[in-house]
Amino acid sequence: MSGHLPVMLDEVLATLQPRTGGHYLDATFGGGGYAAAILAAADCTLWAIDRDPDAIARGAALAARHAGRLQLVHARFGDMLESLAARGVTQLDGVVMDLGVSSFQLDEAERGFSFRADGPLDMRMGRDGPTAADLVNTLPEGELARIISEFGEERHARRVARAILRARAEAPIETTGQLAEIVRRAVPRDPSGIDGATRSFQALRIAVNDELGEVERGLQAAMDLLAPDGRLVVVAFHSLEDRIVKRAMVGAAGRQGGASRHNPAALLQRVSPDFALLTPRALRPTEAETAANPRARSARLRAVERLAGAAQQATA
After folding, report:
1. Which of 171, 198, 239, 283 is spaced 20 to 30 Å from 302 by Cα?
2. Residues 40, 189: one domain?
3. Are residues 149 and 173 both part of a single domain?
4. What torsion, rounded to 10 degrees, do the Cα atoms 111, 115, 121, 125 define?
5. What number of other Cβ atoms are within 10 A of residue 172's Cβ?
6. Is the pLDDT reported for residue 257 higher than 70?
């Protein structure tokens, strides 16, 4: 199970501070690593959301071991307000979110997330909506280039899009192996050693799952659900997600985004902010953790706490 280690677990628990009698949400259940640790840390009640039915099925054993304390919810975390309200939950003492694709999804070739093993070009975290194959075989060149540039930060996005259109004119692109080879031939070799397909695969995955939209909706919903003194802890793995998290948390703490020496006014507090920023700078994994789990290398942890005098926004 070394490929499924929960990232920055010690830091997550130290920041979340689960307490006996509290009500918490693991908004990205995945392999259940955070959930198991939260349940072990305090005699609390935990709700756990995942859009992937396989994750919910895997969680059944953990829920059975913590009967009455762990409730699994099959839903998108961006819809947590509605999903939890339907179950009578309108306030929480803490929320943890671990963004991006799970290790289980990456490691299962049949899910189509990774270029490291050939599989169907799927990439859906759930089981609904268009697949990555649908996108690469139907989208016009300009839209493909936009997705690859914007979500993958790929400098050669236009070149990749043209290569995809040339390939699909000959035959449909149906597997991860096919797409990876098309992309690798289209981009120059990266001197850092990063596989040439990495950025394009990330971009398509984000587009297929509307990941950045989910992050924005999920952050707002989580903050709306927090009770006074409640904490939101988020672990992000790439700059696009982390930028959204930082902006949302800095704003909730009553500061304007984009502070710099050229714009010191951006650090000024608004009157009566609802949240306190617990991480003025993102926390990073330790060298020991990145050595043991290379997937932790890019992780960034940020957190906020609802101030005791702030009104909680969620309604029944």
Report:
1. 198
2. no
3. yes
4. 40
5. 13
6. no
Strand arrangement, sheet containing 92-98:
70-74, 45-50, 23-26, 92-98, 226-236, 300-306, 275-277
Q: Are residues 227 and 283 in the same domain?
A: yes
CATH of the domain at 177: 1.10.150.170
Residues 91 and 220 occupy one common structural domain: yes
Distance of alpha carbon 161 from alpha carbon 157, whole angstroms:
6
pTM passes above 0.90: no
- The counts of H helices and E strands in the chain are 14, 7
Which of 209, 225, 257 is a domain's end point? 209
Give the integer Cα–Cα distance in Å for 44 and 125. Answer: 28
311 in any annotated domain? no
In this structure, which amino acid lies at residue 198? Answer: T
144: closest CA among 121, 122, 167, 160?
Answer: 160
Give 230's contacts (C-beta < 8 A, 6+ positions apart): 91, 92, 93, 94, 95, 305, 306, 312
CATH code: domain of residue 265? 3.40.50.150
One-letter amino acid for residue 271 of the chain: V
Q: Give residue-wise pLDDT tens across range 9-66.
A: 999 999 999 999 999 999 999 889 999 999 999 999 999 999 888 889 999 999 999 9
Q: Is 314 within the bounds of a domain?
A: no
Q: How many CA atoms lie within 13 A of 234 on its CB side?
A: 31
Tell me, yes or no, whether 279 and 291 share the same domain.
Answer: yes
Which residues, including other chains, have CB under 8 Å from residue 210's CB and lie 6 or more apart?
A: none
| Residue 7 covered by a domain | yes
The count of structural domains within the chain is 2
The pair of structure tokens assigned to 300 is 């960034």
156: helix, coil or strand? coil
Domain region containing 143: 111-209
